[in-house]
Amino acid sequence: MKRPLKIGIAGLGTVGVGTVRMVQEHGASLSLSAGRDIKISAVSARDKKAERGIDLGSYKWLDNALDLATEPDVDVVVELIGGADGIAKELCQAAIANGKHVVTANKAMIAHHGTALAHACEAAGVSFAYEAAVAGGIPIIKSLREGLAGNRISRVYGILNGTCNYILSAMATDGREFDDVLKECQQLGYAEADPSFDIDGIDAAHKLAILASVAFGSELNFDAVHIEGIRHVSLMDMQFADELGYRIKLLGIASVSENGLEQRVHPCMVPTTSPISHVSGSLNAVVADGDFAETIVHEGPGAGAGPTASAVIADVLDIARGLKVPTFRVPAKDLQQMTPVAMSKHRGAYYVRLMLVDKPGVFADIASALKDHEVSMESVLQRTRDPGEAVPVVMTLHETEEEGVLGALAEIEAIDAVVEQPRMIRIENL
Ligand code: HSE
Question: Residues 252, 208: contact at Cβ < 8 Å?
């Protein structure tokens, strides 16, 4: 048998502890799979004394995580600290510079610095592996980079944030309020340290930028992702969605066309007949459209100790076996710079909800605003009428360019009888 592969783990939070546990519990089968032993030789975390429910006694403790980068008894640095910059990035850069492989779950760091890190590790001849960064236990990076490597992928999309999916599912099925469900997600450990990363769509956008790079062989371009979160999704919109045959999901969607690369994260209405509308609770799902393989659907737990540790260890095993693959589908030097497609140029169908005082002529004004921007209405719904009270009016719009919809909504908002900012949710007929 070859000499053991020695790993050093930085960060002993939920995922770090799960990773230690997996090595401890599955040591024998990991050795068989890898053809060599996988040994944890060193660990580092902020608080040595914290109670973690695992035995760390046989590992070297390092107070400073950066020391893992120069620790002679470490072949692979497993970075589970998190954060786009700061010590996590410093550690990864130093580890690569010292000829050590890196395994990380750090989606923010990859979304912002992935291309540079890929160049660095490929120049140093080491691996930079990040299966745990996207969709937890779903082996989506391996699937896109290796399993579907022969395909031209035209679109990759999915439910990439468990916290948002949990909140939206609980609102839709139990009629619960947003804040109440968010608190539960924090208690369950799904939500990020700063939950605004989840509910404002940033976490999903980090993951989408990574998926786009692996799917299309393009340079990471997080800044080009259009991002909207779920703060404005209301129970009223959920009820209308249900009535129209849709469910509301926060999706990340990346697609390529002759215009370039479109990357967007926002709430979507998806038909209840679509499989993705049934992915509920904290589950994630990722769908890839390949030219030969056609549509491939992946679904599973996207967060938590066990699923994320499973992804970390899969990367460690690949390194132990000597697998060498480009970081993002193609070698870093061959990654394409794709033209970003602006959201204003997006074409799609739309749900719009207005709150208006129902009085003669108001519909004529709305119709005139739609006409001015060449937007065509598909259906309209007005369920109740309390004289003098604002009532909800829901319209669905035929496929059109977003610029026109936004122009029409700005005009509609200025109508006297329209008493709130119009709500718009994109319809995705997936
Ligand atoms: N906060 C993330 C989520 C955890 O809710 O999906 C996994 O990245």
Answer: yes
